[in-house]
Amino acid sequence: MRITLLGTGTSQGVPLIGHPNEGLDLSEPKNWRNRSCAHIVSDGAHIQIDAGPEFRLACLKFCVSAVDFFFLTHGHSDHILGMDDLRRFCDLRGGAAIPVWTTPEGKARVEAIFPYGIRPRSERGYVALEPRLAEPDATLACGTRVQTTLLPHGPRFRSLGLVFTEKKSGQRIAYFTDCSEVPDEAVALARGADLLVIDALHRNPHPTHLNFEKALEASRKIRAALTVFTHMTYRADYARESAALPPGVRLGYDGFVWEDGVVSED
Ligand SMILES: [Zn+2]
Ligand SMILES: [Zn+2]
Q1: How far, in Å, from the CA of 124 to the mean position of ligand 1?
Q2: Residue 265 located in a structural domain
Q3: Residue 230: inside a domain
Q4: Is residue 266 part of a domain?
C-alpha cells in the first residue's frame, strides 16, 4: 500500500501571494505547498483523495498515471477545483466515468460546478464523473475496504474522514483533512492505523481546522504507527516545526511517500 501526498498546504497554498511569509525558509522545497490532496495505490488500484488547483501539476511531478476511484472530502474550492483535470484519467479508462464518493454537500457542489461532466461516459473530451454518497463501510472493486466518518469542519460544515484497509496486506491508512475536531467515532475508526494523515494548520488555534496541539491530541488517542501533518499554512516552517514534534509524528510535504510502512526519504 502506498500513499503520495500531492499537496500539504492550506486553502491559499504556501507561500502566500504578496506576503513576506516571515519565518518560512523559501529555499527549502518542503515549504512550497500545493493545496492538500493525496494519491493511494491499494490492491493495485489508484485512489485519489481530493483535487485542488495544482492537481494536474502534481500528477505530472509525482508520476500519478491513473485514477480508478475518487473521494472528495468536501466541496471547498481547495479540494474540488482540480477535478476537471480528471478528464485525462477518463480517457485512460476508455471514456468510463470516474466514481466519486463524497458527502451530500460535496455531491451538490460537484453537480453545480461540473454539470457538463455528470455522465456515465466522457463525450467530446469532457470529464465524466459519477458522484455518489459515501457509505460508512464499503469495499471497492479492487478489494480495498473504505470506512468513512463525518468530521466537524467548523460549526456548520462536515468533511469526510477516510480509513482505507488494503485487502492483500491488511495495512490501514487514515486520512482526516479539514476538521476542527476528531470525534470519538473517528478516533475509534482510525485507532492503530499504520498511517494517520491529519489536518494540522499551524500552532495557533483556528475555528475550522485543527492546530498542532489538537492534532497531536488526536494522534495520541489514535496511536497510529506514524502520524503525518497536512493542510499547513506558511506559519509551519518545515525544519523548525519538525524539530519540535514528538517521535512518531512528522510534517508532511508535497511528494511525501509512505509505502508498506516505510517513508521514502529524499
Ligand atoms: Zn481545505
Ligand atoms: Zn475545507
Answers
A1: 31
A2: no
A3: yes
A4: no
Gap from CA of 175 to ligand 2 centroid (Å)? 14
| CATH number for the domain that contains residue 76 | 3.60.15.10
Strands 226-230 and 195-199: parallel
- In this predicted model, what pLDDT tens digit does every residue of 184-242 receive, in sequence order? 999 999 999 999 999 999 999 999 999 999 999 999 999 999 999 999 999 999 999 99
CB-based neighbours (< 5 A) of ligand 2, an ion = 76, 178
**Which residues, in sequence order, are bridge partners of residue 164?**
146, 173
123 has pLDDT over 90: no
State yes or no: pLDDT of 266 exceeds 70: no
What's the distance, CA 157 to chain centroid? 17
Q: Is the pLDDT of residue 149 over 80?
A: yes
How many independent structural domains does the chain possess?
Answer: 1
Distance 233 CA to ligand 1 centre (A): 11
Distance, CA of 194 to CA of 260 (rounded, Å): 9
Each residue of 17-72: pLDDT tens digit? 999 999 999 999 999 999 999 999 999 999 999 999 999 999 999 999 999 999 99
Proximal ligand: closest to the CA of 180: 2
Domain span including residue 95: 2-260
Query: What separation in Å is there between the alpha carbon of 69 and the centre of ligand 1?
Result: 20
Ligand nearest to the Cα of 49, by number: 1
Is residue 96 domain-resident?
Answer: yes
Residue 128 CA, ligand 2 centroid: distance in Å: 24
**Ligand number with the minimum distance to the CA of 7:** 1
**53 Cα to the center of ligand 2, angstroms:** 14
Q: Where are the beta strands (DSSP E) in 29-142?
A: 37-42, 45-49, 69-71, 98-102, 129-133, 137-139
* pLDDT confidence bin for 179, thresholds 50/70/90: very high
